[in-house]
Amino acid sequence: xxxxxxxxxxxxxxxxxxxxxxxxxxxxxxxxxxxxxxxxxxxxxxxxxxxxxxxxxxxxxxxxxxxxxxxxxxxxxxxxxxxxxxxxxxxxxxxxxxxxxxxxxxxxxxxxxxxxxxxxxxxxxxxxxxxxxxxxxxxxxxxxxxxxxxxxxxxxxxxxxxxxxxxxxxxxxxxxxxxxxxxxxxxxxxxxxxxxxxxxxxxxxxxxxxxxxxxxxxxxxxxxxxxxxxx
Length: 231
Hints:
- 10% of the residues lie in helices and 34% in strands.
- The chain is mainly β.
- The longest helix is centred in the middle third of the chain and has 8 residues, at 143-150.
């Protein structure tokens, strides 16, 4: 079944493709009368979502969005010193990967009262399909419809980013004369971590590590400091 291979980054590899490839269903827009998301089945526009999921992988028109894991990653540390003062700036980078973002799910909204930032942008009347890709809100909700929309290529974005991971300030203070050599020196330091992005590829300014909606909580900034004594 095609649905078993879509939205996965591992464990459901398709022969001849990267095992970490991110596959999605092609999004064909919204129905102008109902606001339903439209897919493809046998090369035709289709809204039978279970039939789309159950297509044979070989005949399904899946979209390969590239690797779901960063192919290039690492960190850079820059050290600046002046007399007894040192500043360390750490950058973290990850390139060449794609992310499937978390989207609105009406089934969860009804059952667990989970909201989503996309709710205000949903299709509400004919003509809205020309200005939004967010499906209408049906009642009762259709779980297959929600799942299909969440696994379409319209919801994929480039995860490439550069983060300002840490800034650390250190000051070396000589204490030989003050403590009569009991304490030779002290290192005073303070640091801040998770300071945000220097750059990110996606135009929506999404964080690839945050699933927007019920878990839309980015990593908080962490502040610290201390004293290291050298006896």
